[in-house]
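Translate structure to sequence.
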């Protein structure tokens, strides 16, 4: 069993498709082990995406991630990290495979509906970023 972190980003929250996105996870054997809705501060978003701080899109990324509420989840299941990335689709929704979350719910590479941890190691760092141990059950 693996755990991974998912963020339903401000574009998808604003579109009111939180339930539809969670259904994709649950229908594919990923279980919601933790969930909360919150607004990221600039500091939160910059710290969360610190690996990208030298990239040209960093400021836009922080601005977007703080533009509205997000829903943060811990997903649990077999191969959860890879399975979540597969369900999400490519970073650019225009390149995302049909039937993926980004193909179906996202508009652009900036507003791309969801985040997912990209490795088991990052998953545990990202889960600890948002959740106390007792909140994951
Ligand atoms: P995420 O980390 O959000 O799950 P990802 O792992 O598919 O997405 P990353 O390379 O980690 O993609 O980039 C983080 C986020 O930065 C992307 O989700 C996207 O919103 C934004 N981003 C990435 N590349 C670009 C780009 N070339 N132009 C604009 N925004 C980008
Ligand atoms: Mg990433």
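Result:
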């Amino acid at each position: 069993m693996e755990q991974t972190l998912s963020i339903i980003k401000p574009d998808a929250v604003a579109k009111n498709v939180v339930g539809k996105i969670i259904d994709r996870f649950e229908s594919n054997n990923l279980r919601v082990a933790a969930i909360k809705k919150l607004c990221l501060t600039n500091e939160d978003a910059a710290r969360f995406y610190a690996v990208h701080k030298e990239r040209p899109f960093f400021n836009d990324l922080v601005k977007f991630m703080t533009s509205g509420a997000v829903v943060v989840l811990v997903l649990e299941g077999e191969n959860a990290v890879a399975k979540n990335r597969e369900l999400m689709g490519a970073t650019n929704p225009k390149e995302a495979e049909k039937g993926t979350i980004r193909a179906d719910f996202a508009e652009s590479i900036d507003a791309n509906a969801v985040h997912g941890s990209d490795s088991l190691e990052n998953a545990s760092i990202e889960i600890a970023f948002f959740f106390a141990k007792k909140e994951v059950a």
